[in-house]
Design a protein that fits this description.
The structure is a single chain. The chain is built from one helix and two strands, in the order ββα. It has a two-stranded antiparallel sheet with strand order 1-2. The radius of gyration is 15 Å and the shape is flat. The model has no long low-confidence stretch (mean pLDDT about 85). Helices cover about 15% and strands about 15% of the residues. It has one domain. About 15% of the residues are buried. With about 80 residues, the chain is α+β, with helices and mostly antiparallel strands. Bound molecules: zinc ion.
């Protein structure tokens, strides 16, 4: 569940997000960042777009390998 009006911060630290500078599709200023679909966009611009378009998945964050279960029953 996403709360309307509360922007979800994107995590675009993976190397796949960095190319040469291109105009941001949202604000027009150059950025080396790319979305997962290859669209040039600043993280803040993408976050603002997401906030303005709840439910859409145009810009998504990197998957976080943070789920670590300690001592699971998976022997
Ligand atoms: Zn931008």
């Amino acid at each position: 569940m996403t709360t309307p009006g509360r922007p979800v911060l994107l995590d675009w630290r993976a190397a796949i997000h960095f190319r040469r500078d291109a105009p941001c599709v949202l604000c027009g200023n150059p950025t080396p960042l790319r979305s997962h679909d290859g669209e040039a966009a600043h993280e803040v611009c993408a976050e603002a777009w997401n906030a303005a378009h709840p439910g859409k998945t145009r810009f998504v964050s990197d998957a976080q390998p943070r789920k670590r279960t300690s001592g699971g029953d998976h022997a």
